[in-house]
Structure formats: structure tokens, C-alpha cells
Records
---
Amino acid sequence: MSALTLDGVVKRFGDVTAVDGLTLTVPAGTCLGLLGPNGAGKSTTMRMITGQVLPDSGRITVLGLRVPEESKQARAQMGVVPQQDNLDGELTARQNLEVFATLYRIPAEQRAAAVDRALGVVGLLSRQHARAETLSGGMKRRLLIARGLVHSPALVLLDEPTVGLDPQVRAELWVLVDELRTRGVTVLMSTHYIEEAQRLADDVAMMSHGRLVGQGPPRSLMRTHVGERAWEYYGSEQRLQEVARAAQRAGVPTRSTGPSVSVLRAEDAPPSLQADLGEPGHERETTLEDVFVLLTGENVE
Amino acid sequence: MSVTVARPTATPVRWLEPSAIAAIWTREVTLFSRYWRSTSFAALVEPLVYLLAFGLGFGSLVAAIGDVPYIQFLGTGIVASAVLFTSVFAGMYTTFIRRTFQKVYDALLAAPIDVHEIVIGEALWISTKAAVYGCAPLLAAMVFGLPPSWGMLLVPAIAFLTGLGFALFGILASASVPSIDSFNYITSAVVTPLFLVSGTFFPLENAPEWAQRLAYLNPLYHCVELVRDAVFVTLSPVDLVHAAVLAFFAALMGWLAVRTMRLRLIG
């Protein structure tokens, strides 16, 4: 059963097509990583799922509910962690959560416990009485996460959840996402960090210029598009061009990585190619980044 | 970090969800508990200053308007201006800041609340404050000799209804302007004339006919008339017209405010 489906969704802002015919399915209880560079349409997609941006065409279904028609009902069962800090800075951490606990219709007698639990999950119990505007960037991010989880949602949308976080907090957040998923919560997480998507997502959907350019489990995407192994060649520009041309003649994909060229799907390369290339390149495992660059022509972090 | 997850109950949400209004009020009450002293001080002192400056000052030149001593005429009129300023500026500035700078509404809209509930919740809170602070001028006027009457019990309701209309007008303005500086135009061109041509300081019966006709379009004029008729217990069927105008004004502003705010908040 799918928790979220988008079918041919299009959103334009004036002349700019932010999301262009996006079709996506997120099975219940899985984590889908929406991967793409800034401006790929990830945040617009997230906001269409919450009904804050209206699609020009296409269908969106969230937890069996049509969006935007039934978006309020859908939002009651989803938690949203936005990219930008939109906490109520004048309120304390606890008061921020109390407002949302009320909004999510948590019964009054259970509200304090729900707030305590959410603050505990993100390790902010000791700062619960601090005004949100006085918290550090990392703490604000954690409070945003607590706000999105206070009502134990069935679907969690995380929009670039680890941007600007130090490695320790990022690792803690990854553990949290893992736990959510193992407990059956569906997670849609947009990110432009390849490592994050590879580490957390059951499925990865790659977006570029508003379009979906690839979707599947990370390993499967890699096997399908770039194989298991890559040869990396360094040298002069002329040498790199020769490598790329030889690979092209042999029908093997390549990827330019700044000072080098990677010959992808190396395990399938014909013996004649190795002879053409002469000195063997540095052999490495392929990555999700190889897939992304191959499919989009864009570099990501 | 560790997490415990319980499945949420998918109780159907209503068009006007009490929890949505309660959430807005939870926030407002929390903030108000911090600044109620300064707000209340201003609400009580301002009418006193008006009564001292205009009541005693003008009052020495104009002893009475009809049978009503000028200071009592003024004290009852200032109810309307207190309601106007309490509601319209809160509607304008507060909602603009929350929408544009603090992104509070953006955060709320990712949860089960719609634009109309935000607008209604904010307007109800502002008009409740207007209902309370609108009574402050009466208390001040009583210090200057205004006799208590049972009709005064109607004043909070009149202030609430008027405050609701002007709070929604303020929210409409906040959703319409491109920047916070634009409020200067609205204050100078709309709010100040409404305040001055409402019958607060002088009776409009002696004004030119065109000014009287314009005053009929001014919701604040109807508030002033209604408050005076209530306080002096001279209520008549025409007061139903005043109340109907205020109700119509609130309904119209509400419709426009929700519509305009929706355009601002939903892409």
C-alpha cells in the first residue's frame, strides 16, 4: 500500500516550471529520499503535498486522501519539518510544541506527555523553557523535528533536514529517521546530500529541473545505470578526452569529475577498451553520485 | 535520539475546527500573559488623557451636547476610538509580522488548519481584547461623572462586534500591502478620517449633509451611536440598523480578508 502518490504533477510559477510531470510513489513504512540540487523542485513538491502550493495539473494522494481537496485531513496525519526555521521565536520550545499539540488535536490530558516525549526524542528537555529565538541553529532544527513528531504522524516530510547541522547532530538525526522507519512511519526526505540519501533511503528519487530522472533503491539504481565498478583516469585534458572518446566508442558511459574521467560500468567494458586506454585507471566502487551526475549532468554535494 | 510512535487517530476534521482556533488562542494567551501590563496601562491611561485634554479643555467651551455634558459625550465616543485602535493596528501590524517576518502562518499551514481558521482565530482574539479595552474609556468617564447604567453592559458586545470588523479590515490590509511601510497610507487615508468623522468629538447632526451621508458609511459612526444609545439608555429600533451595519461590515471584511490572505499564503 502506498502512503503517498504523485501522478503527473505539474507546477508553474510564471514562466518557470518548478515541477514538471512528476510521478512518484512512496510505499507505506519506507523512506524515500528526494535527491536533487537546489532549484530542482524538491521544496515545491513538499509544499504541494501539504497543500501549501496548488498543482496546476496532476493528482496527489496522501494516506489515501486527495490533496489539495482533503489536505487538512491529510495534514492531521503528517508531520512536516521545513527547510527554513519557522519556529515561533517569541515562544519557548515547550510552548511551540504545545501550540502544535493543540492544533493536532491531541487530547488536553495527553498533551503534556506528548510534548515531553517529543522534546525527549530530540534531546531538548533541558532547554524546554528557553525561548526558541535564543536556541542555537542545531537546537532550532531539533525543535522543528520535535514539532513535526509531537502527534506521532503516519507520514513525515523532512525538507533538507540536516542543512547547516554539525556532523554529530546530523548523525543523531539519521538514527532518528532510521528509528521512525523501523517503526512503520513513512518518511519523505528531500536532500541534496548524496551520502544522506544513500544512507537512509529505501528508495531514491532523483529530480532535476522539476523532472524525475531516476527512481529506485540506491543499489539498484547504481547497478542499472553505472554498474558495480568504475575506472578513474587522471591526466592532461587531452588524455581525459581520449579516455572519454574511447569509452564512448566501446558503448561504456563515462563521468567527468573535475580533474578526472570515470569510466563507469567497468566490469562490462570490452577487453578492447582496456587495450585502447593503455595504462589502467584507478579502480573504485561506483556511487549514487555517479548515477546522479550521469542522469542529470549536474553535480551535487 | 529515540522515538516512540503511536498511530494518530484520523478523526474527520471540520471546516471550522475548534482545535485550530484553540491553538491560535493558546499562542495569543501565552504572549499576552507577558505584555498585558503595558497594554492595559496604555488602554486605561489614553482615555484619561483624552478626557483631560479634550473633555476639560473643550468642555470649558462646550458645556453640553444636547442634554449630555460634553465630557460624558466624549467619554462614550472614545469607546469607539479605543476599539478602532486596539483592533485595526493589531490586525495590520501583528498579522503582517507573523506572515512575512516570523513565518508563523507558514508553519501553521503545514498542520491541520486552513487560512480561514487563522484569520478567524486572530480576529476573534483581537476583537475580544477590543471588547475588554473598549470599556476602559467608560471607566475613565465614570471618574469624570458619567453615571452607571444597565446599558453599559451592552458595550462589550458592541465593542466586540466593531472590533471584529476592524480587526478583519486590518488583516485584509496586511494581506494587501507590499511592505510594512505601506500601512502609513492606510493609517493616513483611511483610519484617521474614520476616527475623526465618527461623531466621537462632535455631533454630526450639525455637519454638512454630504459629511453626514459619508458618516453613515463609516462603521465607527454606527459604533459611536450604538454605544451612546446603550450608555444613556436611549435605545430605539434605529440601533438595530447600527448593529446590522457593524455585522455587515465584519462579514464583508471577513470574506475579503480570508480571500486575500489565501492568495498570499497558498501558492
---
Amino acid sequence: MLTPAESEALLLSLKVSLVAVACALPFALAAALLLARRRFPGKPLIDGALHLPLVLPPVVIGYLLLIVLGTRAPVGGWLLAHLGIRFVFSWTGAALASAIITFPFQLRAIRLALEAIDAGLGQAAETLGAGAFDRFFNLTLPLVLPGIVAGAITAFAASLGEFGAIITFVSNIPGETRTLPLAIYSALQSPGSEAEAARLSMLSIALALIGVTLAELADRRARTLVGR
Amino acid sequence: MIEVSVRHDFGAFSLDASFRIERPGITALFGPSGSGKTTLVDAIAGILRPREGRIVSDGRVLLDTGKGVFVPPRARRMGYVFQDTRLFPHMSVENNLRFGWRRAEVKASSEEFSRILDLLGLEPLLARRPAGLSGGEKSRVALGRALLASPQLLLLDEPLAALDDARKSDILPYLERLRDAAKLPMFYVTHSLDEVTRLAGDLILLKDGRVRAQGNVFDLLPDLEFARSAGIAPAGAVFAATVRGPRADGLTVLAFDGGELIVGRLAQPIGAPLRVRLRAEDIMLALEEPKAISANNILPATVTGVQRRDSSAEVQLLCGGVKLVSRITAASLARLGIAPGTRLFAIVKSVTVDPQM
């Protein structure tokens, strides 16, 4: 059905997206808790900055990553020299770019789920003897879990489609950074590969559809859990 | 048992209330909406940190703003039954019930656990989720959850307010059983005179953030100053009675501290305790015992106080050990020469008696 190069692109896409979503999740949860539960000066600015990847051209994100994490850039150079970590031209760089691009999807879903929880439940738990950690793990987390799942699935589906930031930051290397969209792009660039481009596009559409449907199901589960 | 003194401000509204609750049973915190009842209860539970105040429960200082003492809600052992129940939606009824029980400093024994389940009829609900429960069932679960945390004081914030009348009468017997079975004091927030009449032993009247009256319900309710201040109209007395038995003619005889009262047919068994509310306008007064009269109850009484208001007068009576109040016209008052100390007869038609079941 798929050529070895095509399955390679598919598996790489899945790996990159999975790692991207998993790594961004704790940060998204922390940011969502901060935005939903705390008031602090400069909150609108932070809120806006965290949503920036949603509106910024992905190429700009890729470019910024290159400036900061390139092997000759200060941070990237330090990481390579001291920890042996290199993002450029590596699938980990693709995962990082995807994580940043899809972070707002996770943040938004988790934040909405947090804000939907009745603050009175926390008070009730407090009068029943539950401390802050206890309330977080036994009340907040289970109630927000469907929101986390919905956000993660949406972010995963969006991450599968990331193109601009990846090609700018880590280039288009077969087997290393050539994810599905990059493979489609390459196929379109080489004459006679129209069928390959079509197959990969169909695959992308199917994956996106599955992702969005699962996210919707998780969202519904969230609504019944918090009783709306 | 608990001593409360709280001062707090909300914009233009200020709360400044002090009181003590000395004994088990239900103390009603009665007052109109916006009088600061929930704020006061939140302060006792520790959910709200008042500007100034001191709260001592069983000798333990929970709050003393002067000394910087603030015990957090989770360490206060106050059972709180919220008006909106606040059951945890992602847990079964059983896990809701066990939530406070697991975390209690002094854990109720498993016998105690099943006794409370039994008392509130919770056994059939255990496996269900809160979303599938009726309003009345939710209230019972919320009550059980608070009780199972072994609180020192149970705070009930209008637990029946969200229920329709039919559901209310479903829950009231549970509350009565709880009051009679539990040895803990309960602080019951309400603006419903029916609930006060039926449940409360003591009453605190809160109005505009101030305590306007405090005392035993049987003493306070016939008090006209109190009725006026609490906005209770029509004024009336409440007293405790027990069912003595049915009569052959279908009426029921109640025994109370002033003798016997004949009322309409009641379903309660002989010996059942209940409370009777007699409205002031339903009591007629006569200086001599009427012989041929349709009313079934002619109770000898002594006048303890008279208050005139425009063309009407309210006469306070002592009938045995029970305080009653009657409203008559000022003209009748003058014609009969009724004054404190007058011995007379209070006439009560059976059909006007309102026994609270």
C-alpha cells in the first residue's frame, strides 16, 4: 500500500507529534492553572504571548528557533558543547517546533476545562479535610482530565500537519525530519510523483479526521463530568 | 459549644454578629435574603476569612484575628451542607460519602457509617453518580457526606431552598431524625418560617448583618417585637405536643403543656411528637367559659402582655407552660377590659390548627 519511504514519513510524523504533545503537556497544564486560577500583573500580556504560535507564521517560529538553538547560536552552541544536545537537522528539533506551534491548543483546552469546574467543589473538599495537593489530585485533575485528553488529541492532529516551522528549523531530511507534509511537498516537487502526493494527502486527511472526532468525544465526556 | 464573633465588610454591607450555641439540636439562623447568613456560615467554616473576629469551638480557637490565629477549613471539623449540595460529579455516591470519612481525624466506625447510611436512606444510592440523582436525593447525600466527616458542628445553608414543596416534605423527616439521633449541634440557615417551626430549638435572627434576637423558638415566636422585626406575618405561637390518640369522631387529640388540643385527623401514631403552630388571628378570647359554641378547644389562660397597634391589639397569653398570642380588635380589648393578669379562655377552632408533620 505504502512505499517504504512513505511509511517512514508516516511513522516519523507520529513519533514527532507524540513526543511534541507529551513534552508540551506539563507546561500547558502549568500555564493553564496559572491563567485560570491566579491573578497577577501583566496577565493579559502573558496570555497573549502564550497564544502567539497560533497566529504567527510558522516560518517565523522556525527562524526564531534557528536563531536561538542553531549550533552557532549562544543557547544551541552551549547545549551542544556541554550536553551534546543538537536540535537542528534532527527529529527532536521537529518535535520541539511542533510542540511550540501546538502548545496553544493544549493550553486552551485545559484552561477551558479548568474554568468550567465549579469553585464551590474545592471549598466543599476543603471543609471535608482535603488539603491543596489532595484537592489537585483527587478533584481538579480527574475533572480536567477529559480536557487534557481533548487538548492533546487536537494538538496531536495539528502537529501532524506542521510544515513551515519544521522545514525552516530542521530542514527536509528523509528518515530524520521528513514528516508527512514535508514528504507531500517533496513528492510535488519531483515530476511523476503525483500519485504519491495524493496518497499521502488522503492519509493526512484521514488522520486529521480521526483526531478531531476523538477530541470532540473527549470534550463531550468532559461536559457530562462537570455536569453541563 | 461554639462561640462566634465576626465582623466583615462587603462594599456598603457590613456584618457584625456575635452569638454562642450552647447545646446540641438545631439552632436556626433566620433572616431575609441578603442579611449576611451565608457569609456568617462561611466564616465559621473558614471558607471566608473575616476582617475581624474570634471563633471558638469546644475550647479550640479556630479564628482570632487579634492574635493572628486562622485554622484552615480542612482542620476545622465543620460539616458544611451547601445549598447547591456541591457533590463531586466524577465520583459515585459512595465515594462522595467516603471522601470526608477517609480524611476525618476521628473516623466514624463502620457501625456508625452504616447507621448514618440507614438514617438517611442512602444504601440504594451508593453506586449511582450525582448527575443521576433527584434534588432530594442529592440533599440527602450531601447531608451524609458532611456527617460522615465526624464534624463538631454541622452547618446547613438553606439545605431545602432548591427543592420544591413535595421534595421538602421528603427531606424534613430525615432532618428531624438526624436532629433527634445525632448528638451534635446543628446550625441551620433558613428564611423559611415553616422550617424554623418544624425543626429549630433555638433561633438567631439576623437582619442587615446584625443579630437582632436570639433565644428559644417557643419563647421568641409568640413575641410580637420579634415577629415584627423578623417580618413574620401573621404572628403566631409554636409549641411542642404529642399525639394522645384518635377520637371516635375522627378527630385527633394532642397533649401539650397547657392541656389537650383537639385537631383534625392526623396520621401519626400515638405518642408521636410534633409541633403545633397557632396563628394569632385564629385565637378568640372569652372572659367566661362559653357553653354552646362550635369550637372544640377552650383553653384557660392568663394574659401576660398587651400591645395595641392602631385598631387592633395583640394579647400574649400563658396557657399552662405554653406561650400563645391572640390578635383581637382594640375595641374588643377595651370592651372586655383585658389587661396583664386577666384570666380568660382562649378559643381555638380545630380546623385552624396547623400541626407540623
